[in-house]
Each structure stands twice: as C-alpha cells, then as structure tokens.
Amino acid sequence: MLTVSDLSVTLPMAGVPVPVLSGVSLTLPRGGSVGLVGESGSGKSMTALAVMGLLPPGARTGGQIGFDGHDLLAAPEAALCALRGRRIGMVFQEPMTALDPLMRIGAQVAEPLRRHLGLSRAAAAARAAALLARVGLAPPRVTPDLYPHQLSGGQRQRVVIAAALACGPDLLIADEPTTALDVTVQAQVLDLLAALTAEAGMALLLITHDLAVVSETVEQVLVMYAGRVVESGSTAAVFARMAHPYTRALFAASPHAAVGDPAPIPGVMPDPRARPPGCAFAPRCARAGGECTRTVPPLLGTDAHRVACFHPHAAR
Ligand SMILES: Nc1ncnc2c1ncn2[C@@H]1O[C@H](COP(=O)(O)OP(=O)(O)O)[C@@H](O)[C@H]1O
Ligand SMILES: [Mg+2]
C-alpha cells in the first residue's frame, strides 16, 4: 500500500543543497507494520515528512513514494491535503504541539470528522466520545469537555491518537510517539497503538530511536544511519542476527534491551554537510577496514533481511 523506492532528499543549508536521505526504500503492505529506527539525525523524520508531503521549504526529492495508486512526490498539495488526516493519520512526539490548548479535547477529536467526513456537530461529538473511550479516556475521569492542560502527558498523547484515528486512515505514521512520556506510560501507549492499528487493519509506520521498543510492536524494521538504511528485514530476522555493527550498538544503547546497563555509542553521527566518503558509520566502528572508508557499502540481501556492511556479524 505504501511503497518508498530509492527516496533521496536534499535540503538547502546556507544555500547549498545537502543530501539528508539517500536510497531509502520500504514497502508497507495494507495492515502491515514497519519500524524506522536510528539515532537522532539519522533521517527518520525526513522519511515520514516526505511521505506526508511536509518536507521543509527548498527540499528536493528523488525516487518514488507510491500510496494506493498515488505518487505522493508528484501529487499536488491539494491532493496531499486531502490524504492527510483522512487516509494518513499522524502522531508526533510532543502531544502539546499537536493539540490546541484553547480547544476542548472532544472538539479536537471531532474536528477531522467534520472536516473530512462532513459529519454533523452532534454525530461528530458522539463519535469523538467513543474514540476517546477507545483510547482509554472515559468518564468519569476524563470527559470530552476537558482542555489539554487538564490531562497528563500520556493522556494528551491518547487524545492525539484518537484524533489521528478518527477518520479511519489506512496508514498511521507515529514519529517518536512515546519519547516525551514516562517509561511506564510509554509501553501502554505503544501497546495501544499496536492494538488499534491491528484491530482496524491499518498500516503502521512507527518511528523511534529505541531499537528494543520495536521488537514487539512491528513486523519489519529499517535501521537508519546518516540518511541511509543500513539494515532491514523482518523484525525476527533482524533481531536474530543484528548483522550491522550499528544495529548492535543501537541495541546496546537502549534502556529497554535488558542486557545490562545501556552503553552509549561512542562518537557522534557525522554532520550531513561533512559525511565521510565510505560508510558513514566507519569512524565509530570497531570492525571498519580500508574499503569501509572508501566505498559506501550497498544494501544487499533479500526482502527478509538486508544489510549494508562489508564486515557484518554472522549471528548473535
Ligand atoms: N529543517 C531542516 N533544515 C535542514 N536540515 C534539517 C532540517 N531538519 C532536519 N535536518 C537535518 O536532516 C537530517 C535528518 O534529520 P531527521 O530526519 O529529523 O532525523 P531523525 O528524525 O532521525 O532524528 C539531520 O542531519 C538534520 O540535521
Ligand atoms: Mg525525528
């Protein structure tokens, strides 16, 4: 249903086009789920923004993004606008920025129902109350006439999820949906997202910097680094092998990996204006050899499991 093929994005920085995404491909079948994982700056949000047609001004794109017969990279803004909120729902990291502080939560969930589906005020209000109840926000504790500031962070994110799901989209894009929440609340919100999308046969594109988080939530994983996919495949295959040294480092850095204390990855991701010529991870990689600093390793393998590394790990 969603097919991203060889997506590239450059953004102007001080007037110079700088590549931020290169050769990103993914396939998300109807009802399927994909996790995009990588450190901050790896290109996860740019990938999501490209799908939604919300890239920053001056962005240049290459490749294709197919969504149910539409080429989203070529679609006019009006067509994208009609898809967003209706066929594609979105949940971002910070619920407070997604919500209007002056609007009651019931009205915020009802708004897309009125705008996209043309429901009457009463019908939209009734549907909004049901959606809020479905995400665990029900009277007497939470009523649709509350304002966002009267809720906790986790409850606010549940409102955002209810609004994103209101029109029954075919695809839900959740970009770090739990990063701003307490650890105990994070798992509940992720479980809710997985349950709701599965129940509605909705496809889920889940973005997180925490590799351990996706292991139980999505069917496929793409590990991104410096604007490229470095490892991808079924969640089972990727976790069984963790072939790319970066995938292992990312996993070891997760506070949820339950393999001792999280170990931060030494070094920093290269700035997109000054990426090294070969593998962008080579300067931080204990396994890097000569060719790694000269040639970008191609992403090789099958749909079940691909890795872009000249010295991959064989098995865990
Ligand atoms: N508005 C912008 N203008 C220029 N560069 C940007 C902008 N937003 C993000 N970038 C750069 O694009 C790259 C990818 O960023 P992003 O997709 O936001 O990463 P992630 O979501 O994985 O943390 C980073 O190098 C970041 O610095
Ligand atoms: Mg991001």
Describe the protein.
By secondary structure, this protein is of the alpha/beta class. It has a domain at 2-77 and 211-307: 3-Layer(aba) Sandwich (Rossmann fold), CATH 3.40.50. It is 31% helix and 23% strand. The chain contains ten helices and twelve strands. Helix 4 (105-117) crosses helix 5 and helix 5 (121-134) crosses helix 6. The two termini are 33 Å apart. Bound molecules: adenosine-5'-diphosphate (ADP) and magnesium ion. Adenosine-5'-diphosphate is lined by residues 11, 13, 20, 38, 40-46, 56, 272.
In short:
This protein is α/β, with parallel strands linked by helices. Helices cover 31% and strands 23% of the residues. α4 packs across α5, α5 crosses α6 and α6 runs parallel beside α7.
Which percent range fits the helix content? 25-40%
Model regions low in confidence, pLDDT < 50 over at least 5 residues = none
Class from helix and strand fractions: alpha/beta
The number of helical elements comes to: 10
Strand order of the largest sheet: 6-7-8-3-9-10-12-11
- Taking the alpha carbons of the first and last residues, their distance comes to 33 Å
Oligomeric status of the shown chains?
single chain
Arithmetic mean pLDDT: 93
- CATH topology name of the domain at 2-77 and 211-307, in short, is Rossmann fold
- At the fourth level of CATH, the homologous superfamily of the domain at 2-77 and 211-307 is P-loop containing nucleotide triphosphate hydrolases
* Unique ligands: adenosine-5'-diphosphate, magnesium ion
Over all CA atoms, what is the radius of gyration? 20 Å
Strand segment tally: 12
**What percentage of amino acids are in beta strands?**
15-25%
Q: How does CATH name the architecture of the domain at 2-77 and 211-307?
A: 3-Layer(aba) Sandwich
CATH class of the domain at 2-77 and 211-307: Alpha Beta
Q: What is the 3D form?
A: globular
